[in-house]
Amino acid sequence: MVDIINYISQHHQHANIILSEHNIDELQHPSAGGHSLDDRVRLFTGEVKDIRFKADVLMTIGGDGTILRAVSQFSNFNVPPILSFSMGTLGFLLPFDVGSYRARVDELFANRLRVLQRSRLECHVIGTHPSEARVNMVHAMNEITLHRGSNPNLISLDVYVDGECLTSTTADGIIVSTPTGSTAYSLSSGGSIVHPSIRGLLLTPICPRSLSFRPLILPSTSDIMIRLSQKSRNVSVKLTIDGIELSDMRHGDEIHIRKQLDIDNHIWCMAQGDNDWTKDINDLLGFNKQFNESKR
Amino acid sequence: MVDIINYISQHHQHANIILSEHNIDELQHPSAGGHSLDDRVRLFTGEVKDIRFKADVLMTIGGDGTILRAVSQFSNFNVPPILSFSMGTLGFLLPFDVGSYRARVDELFANRLRVLQRSRLECHVIGTHPSEARVNMVHAMNEITLHRGSNPNLISLDVYVDGECLTSTTADGIIVSTPTGSTAYSLSSGGSIVHPSIRGLLLTPICPRSLSFRPLILPSTSDIMIRLSQKSRNVSVKLTIDGIELSDMRHGDEIHIRKQLDIDNHIWCMAQGDNDWTKDINDLLGFNKQFNESKR
Amino acid sequence: MVDIINYISQHHQHANIILSEHNIDELQHPSAGGHSLDDRVRLFTGEVKDIRFKADVLMTIGGDGTILRAVSQFSNFNVPPILSFSMGTLGFLLPFDVGSYRARVDELFANRLRVLQRSRLECHVIGTHPSEARVNMVHAMNEITLHRGSNPNLISLDVYVDGECLTSTTADGIIVSTPTGSTAYSLSSGGSIVHPSIRGLLLTPICPRSLSFRPLILPSTSDIMIRLSQKSRNVSVKLTIDGIELSDMRHGDEIHIRKQLDIDNHIWCMAQGDNDWTKDINDLLGFNKQFNESKR
Amino acid sequence: MVDIINYISQHHQHANIILSEHNIDELQHPSAGGHSLDDRVRLFTGEVKDIRFKADVLMTIGGDGTILRAVSQFSNFNVPPILSFSMGTLGFLLPFDVGSYRARVDELFANRLRVLQRSRLECHVIGTHPSEARVNMVHAMNEITLHRGSNPNLISLDVYVDGECLTSTTADGIIVSTPTGSTAYSLSSGGSIVHPSIRGLLLTPICPRSLSFRPLILPSTSDIMIRLSQKSRNVSVKLTIDGIELSDMRHGDEIHIRKQLDIDNHIWCMAQGDNDWTKDINDLLGFNKQFNESKR
């Protein structure tokens, strides 16, 4: 990180570098060791709520999880274009190795990086208990998951699309996923692999008590509403957004995934080429690996 | 049919009624029986190649197959908006019962019918054998299928997306399907159910020799090319478009599903409401039918 | 229940009727109401550990869950043949409606009831923590489930068969199921439907991070061992047997499903005919329901 | 082959070596080249019908297909134990590389080779057309397949188990597979992987018009009968046994897979160890391959 900061401040001096408070702590930690910041470097920081509207580009160093966490800081805000570096792990959101940071940073400032447009889901949690009527808006880059968690009983969920009942399902849970998330939890649950530029969302059941709940792809302009069915024996269900647990949903609460968006739901991710995805599903997932038929 | 023709010519006299030659034959057949055409009715007919560019609306009476065949007559042409009547069978393309023709015809002429936009695939078959270099363009409303047919050996196919190799598959075959076709053969082969308004196409394998060929959803703007692999033991593969067999593909031939379209690939289908599809997957497919747990 | 007890004591006077303490409580509850025990009825009861080796036949009234709970009382013991009555709910283990109890009880005592042989899994939980080295034996009629529960991270499990590593899986969990359990949780997770008289067990993954973990059927004579992988980020995993939660498994603990059985693992269930199962998968699961193609 | 024959006749002189007429032809072909038979070697040959009841051991050199063809020569006969050598290809039935033939042959004559018991299906084709009432018995080591082949319409099949209707299916076809065949065509069609020593058979649909035809595992003692449904639009269906096409089945014809066996249906295959299968599903199928998450 130190090297990248030094490089930017030397070669692109008009750029302001804003670090999260967490990053600042890391920099000052003794383990940052050998590397030290150039004297001329000027850094900005602050609480997320203060710095997030000042960012023109979001840069991350780490794995897919790091990007999800960074983007989640921009829940309810526009997300600036993302340049993400991998430190060795592979991932669908990780086109660049950190070793190539000089070339990438130069391309960024020269506007020569390609971008792939991904989308987020805008999710509203509406609580109907009078004492705590909460309407929380939150964005998901991968998926919104409702799951029974450690509850011994299956949950029953009612799913509405554009105001009409689509289905009632008794299951471990359900996933509403972006195409980006189609290679994450939805894949494990049997969902198809969807190219990230498709304008749609996946509705994938988790272990349904049914032989015929084939995964669905719905338009991204759908209004989806999910709530615990009155017949559900469980009184609450675990709500998880991009792997982060939110407070449980209870009888009467509703999840809305809305088409009338308050916030732009697009995310621009810097990419290596137009076919990173084709390469990634082969390299990362071992997509359609043929059987071995001859001696190695 | 006679009743509808009579009704239109009486109540919407400015409309010209064009029948396919096949329909004319039916009218004159003795089995047309009790019903007879009103004396004032004026009909037009001709070969498909002559009449298809004169149609403002395409009207069908029959099942989903009737619509597919009617639309296939407009392969390489724009398809006029479709008003389809069912004679008792259920289908995803059959919102209206023929018994309600009066109301529907009136709504049609009053521009009060809703439409659902579906899309076609534009498929080019390129033969590389010098003696018969053919470049056939054909449109698919449901799907393009490559299958080994009655050949005892599996086929090997190479699949390219936007010029890069996506995968090589050894299988019974492969399906490239529209969202409309996602409830047809692709569904039987394990594909997801995709809402017809999604701008994408499904790539669904048929019995692949692989544990990891999860069905894919690709952007409708993809350039897809499929050809028999050099390692395929079969020298030909059966090509079927919307259930109609075309001549076999051989080594060297290529199927292109192209993004640079020569013809508008949208089809406007008259619909009953915005959520016909939600109702249809429940009524027609028995989607997510719950298990019986109490006595009937 | 009262009616059945009265009927048995009147018509089959040599039979001793043993009730669980729980049943005795129910009988004495005011809600037992209108029905009252015949004066001549003599009942026996006691703690489960005392009465279970005295039972020649196990009779249940309720749903599939009632049978599972009753059989779980015989964990580590031979299970007597089971005659189960349904009170309205449908189930694979419920061939008889309670309304027909007279005929069924008479057939039982005349040895004229058919039986279907089902099997249990014998599961040993071996804890390796010195302070609490526990070797618990427990039997499963449906399935043994290892699941991450409400833990946010997937679990990594190592699975051994007959002493050799079969696979390492990162997943929500894994199910080891009897054929009886193949229509329960394993079915929801994508497992095949296995006839209850097959001598085998199902290994079905729950949402695995893999495209190629096809469910397996292994011989019932296999020695299966599962443990938390060293690389698992979770330190514990939820262990559930037939829907009943046991204490969590931790790093170092092992689950053994053993072939050298200490206890006979067969369960004899009274059945209506030889093909109850064929009928049940159709009636209960809606197996292979065809699509609707004509108007109802 | 020549080397193995020479080795056997030198080191195990009491053994009689029988070659199929096809093998004799190969030996005399100039391409057999460098290798020549020892002068002392005495060979026996004859038509298959004459030599098959004289064989105590069946030895094959080649791939899985070679074994299937060799075993198919013993349709309607007991199959002698099989010792199969691979010439480089991998396969579930190929435990030994041909390079190790000396050790294997010695172990064979010393009765020191392990065996794995596999089973065949006994299939009777009963034609009901008076002019050609045929009752053909044939055995399948992998699977019996009914498929529409190049017929444009799906087929409708009625499936009976033990005399009762199990289901009626509209599909591309259906597979009745042995556990041995569970890693062949049934796997491609979505069937589970079944250990070869399980006493059961798989009923796996091929592209069914249904969301709820989950693959089934039935007891090997089931009586299965399949016939073209009266409602099938196709008048014939392609019948294939272990990849070899038989004459088409027509309306009225019946396939019976019977429990009252006329011929022992077990096949003893020489194996390397008890866990060849565990190793094979990993090595050959890439079973449960984990996703790549770190740089190679």
Automatic annotation (TrEMBL), chains A, B, C, D:
InterPro entries: ATP-NAD_kinase_N, ATP-NAD_kinase_PpnK-typ_C, NAD/diacylglycerol_kinase_sf, NADK. It comes from the Eukaryota. GO terms for biological process: NAD+ metabolic process; NADP+ biosynthetic process. The keyword Ribonucleoprotein does not apply. Gene3D superfamilies: Probable inorganic polyphosphate/atp-NAD kinase, domain 1, Probable inorganic polyphosphate/atp-NAD kinase, domain 2. GO terms for molecular function: NAD+ kinase activity. Pfam families: NAD_kinase, NAD_kinase_C. Keywords: Kinase, NAD, NADP, Transferase. Belongs to the NAD kinase family. HAMAP family: NAD_kinase (MF_00361). This is ATP-NAD kinase. The lineage of its organism: Eukaryota, Fungi, Dikarya, Ascomycota, Saccharomycotina.
